[in-house]
Amino acid sequence: MSHDRPGGRRVPTVPLLVTLVVATVVSAVVSLAFGSEPLSVSGVVDVLRARLAGGRGSDPTYDTIVWELRAPRVVMAVVVGAGLSIAGACMQTLVRNPLADPYLLGVSSGAGVGATLVIVLGVLSGLGVWALSAGALGGALLATALVFGISMAQGGITPLRLVLTGVVMSAAFSSISSFLVFFSADPRATQSVLFWLLGSLSGSVWDQILPSVLVVVLATALLVALHSWLDALAAGAEVASALGVPVRGLRIALFVLVSVLVGVLVAVSGGIGFVGLVVPHLARILVGARHRVVLPVAAVGGALFMLWVDVAARTIVAPQEIPLSVVTGLVGAPVFLLLLGRRHYTYAGGGE
Question: CB–CB of 134/194 below 8 Å?
């Protein structure tokens, strides 16, 4: 499988990664100044300095806005952007399809059913602020179990079977969500469901950060550790088997890993399109197809991209917010079309 431009010039990985990390850190600090109430960057830095030293900012208003309201969603934007990009890169290798994205297995649609049950019918309301995340995560895990069970019952996990099963189950779950929303008598619930399905970080709180960070870090570390097997799998099942890769076990492991990763991210952010589809392709164009370099570049690049998507979502029509998928779609669609138009970029996948 070729992802690269024959003879194309690649960007050195280490300088690129350092640049992306520095840009992400600077962007994270600067982005805290943007919102419905504009703040000065110096005021933001003062609050961060005081908080990191264990105290509070000298201005209570700045302290509340920066640390309690904006900092959790900025950190969550970094985590979600990195996680979706990693999941997209892994999914494209697992099913050997350049159009694959993290939601291909129906995880997002399953999470949507769980979230809709919470918003429309009040299921799990006893969990308080965790009800929406718990409902979404439960729906995502249920969808994962169904896709896995159906694929195994029909002969095992293969790229083509995973794609078809995921697409079919995604359509079924979307229909269930639509049915629940259609019969809802509360227009505010309908609006809430729609906003959540299109992605939002407005509900981010510090308590949600650590579990999401742990899942993304562990998933990234595992995938990087498996980079040579992923390279072999990307070349085809026959090639991977000839190189000693346990193809069946690897596919099952990747399926479970991506499903859990995406389920956790969808539970805290809703469905955010295009990030996991486009960012891995951009990483391959810059550094080549080897997963050892693609995965870290995609992770940091996705984090940086999502940071500014969130800034755009909360400032363009402030004090209202735009769903994140609206912004990623407006940016991602022309970028992806530009990718398709590149003569030297190919991604020749195939199913079984």
Answer: no
Report the pLDDT averaged over residues 263-286.
88
First to last CA, the chain: 14
Closest C-alpha among 307, 327, 325, 305 to residue 316: 327
Which is nearest to 27 in space by CA: 41, 46, 43?
Answer: 41
| φ/ψ (deg, to 5) at 203 | -95, 10
Q: What is the pLDDT of residues 21-35, one digit of tens each?
A: 999 999 999 999 998
Highest mean pLDDT among 104-108, 115-119, 290-294: 290-294
Residue pLDDT, tens place only, 230-242: 999 998 888 999 9
| Mean pLDDT (the chain, rounded) | 86
Residue 265: phi and psi, rounded to 5, are: -70, -40
Helix 159-182, helix 131-153: angle, nearest 10: 140
CA 202 from chain center: how many Å? 16
Euclidean distance between CA atoms 173 and 145, whole angstroms: 13
CB neighbour burial string for 57-89, b if at least 16 within 10 angstroms, e if fewer:
beeeebbebbbeebbbbbbbbbbbbbbbbbbbb
The pTM for the full model equals 0.89
Give dist(CA 155, CA 50) in Å, integer.
Answer: 58
Rounded Cα–Cα distance for residues 232 and 237 (Å): 8
Q: Could you give the C-alpha distances from 127 to 193, 200, 216, in angstroms and in order?
A: 18, 20, 24
